[in-house]
Design a protein that fits this description.
Layout lengths: L1 E2 L15 E2 L21 H25 L2 H26 L4 H33 L8 H27 L4 H41 L11 H29 L10 H21 L3 H4 L6 H8 L6 E3 L5 E3 L1
Helix pairs in contact: 1-2, 1-7, 2-3, 3-4, 3-5, 3-6, 3-9, 4-5, 5-6, 6-7
Length: 321
């Protein structure tokens, strides 16, 4: 990528012949012409990188032990993208002018949380089975399929927009890519909002049933499962906050003030995703459902609509929903 010193956008100045931005260093070029207008923190980004590497190994071990294949696959996908993204930001610390690390960080950290939400969607289906299909608007599997499809659509938009924006040769092309990224992130916010509303609707129906003396044994009376529900809520909230921040960040473009301030990014992106990832690790569903997580009778039982699914918790206790 070439850079024109009079150009307001490094990523849109590729046709300039004055010098190549990839030949710049902090000692030879002004920081305002870098991919971001600051030198990314080595300590902060290395810390996030280390945390995600540790969480990745933990999820692999827990996933294999409890056979939570779908949940493990989703978390691995998200954590690997976070690892790659923060590794690129560590590289940017040593040279923030390089375009390839910027592109890698931009795309990976933008789409990474999509995989975390997919894991949360998988958990909702099991929760519905525990309480009873009759309290949900749709079958458990319907929730999973619908929201994962939303995630895939959001992921495609974000990845496509990120690639277009960073490889743009004109300001107009860059803005088009940014607009597509914003559309993908906005769609993610909308789908998360719908997900939260449906969760509240389900919770309200369950609460009403408990208050009128429903014959079902409600699993939420067990402290561990209750904590699991709160953990999923916290993970959803942090990802929601992060997605709203990224929409606001991109509204001003790559040269906007919010996109070029590291502190908001490290808190509202890095910390939020880290909290969500740690929460989904500490409250791993395998610790609640044991190896019955992947048993076919969990989903099939929940789809019959009779609330007859039987689950065995990790401590050997049985509950019928």
């Amino acid at each position: 990528m070439s850079l024109n010193l009079t150009s307001p956008s490094p990523s849109a100045a590729a046709n300039s012949t004055k010098f190549n931005i990839n030949d710049c260093t902090l000692s030879t070029c002004p920081i305002k012409y870098a991919q971001v207008h600051y030198d990314p923190s080595l300590a902060g980004n290395a810390l996030y990188l280390t945390i995600f590497i540790v969480l990745l190994f933990v999820h692999v071990l827990l996933g294999i032990r409890y056979r939570t294949w779908g949940f493990m696959g989703s978390l691995i996908g998200g954590l690997v993208l976070e690892i790659i993204g923060y590794a690129a930001r560590v590289q940017m610390h040593f040279n923030p002018f390089l375009s390839n690390p910027f592109l890698i960080y931009l795309i990976c950290l933008t789409i990474g949380p999509v995989f975390l939400t997919a894991a949360i969607y998988l958990c909702l289906a099991r929760i519905i089975v525990v309480y009873g299909r009759q309290y949900a608007r749709f079958a458990p599997r319907t929730y999973t399929i619908f929201f994962i499809c939303c995630d895939i659509f959001s992921l495609v938009l974000q990845a496509t927009g990120g690639g277009m924006a960073d490889t743009a040769r004109t300001p107009a092309q860059e803005q088009t890519g940014i607009n597509i990224m914003i559309a993908g992130l906005s769609f993610q916010v909308v789908s998360l909002t719908l997900f939260v509303l449906l969760c509240f609707d389900f919770a309200w129906n369950v609460r009403k049933a408990r208050n009128i003396g429903a014959p079902l044994q409600i699993i939420s009376s067990r402290a561990r499962f209750h904590g699991f529900l709160y953990a999923l809520g916290l993970a959803t909230l942090t990802i929601y906050i992060r997605s709203c921040f990224r929409v606001a960040e991109l509204q001003g473009g790559f040269n906007g003030s919010l996109a070029n301030e590291e502190v908001p990014f490290m808190i509202l992106e890095g910390a939020m995703v880290t909290i969500a990832s740690i929460t989904l690790t500490v409250a791993h569903p395998g610790l609640i459902f044991g190896k019955s997580w992947g048993a076919a009778n969990i989903i099939h039982g929940g789809n019959r609509g009779d609330g007859a699914a039987k689950l065995e918790l990790n401590d050997g206790s049985h509950f019928r929903g």
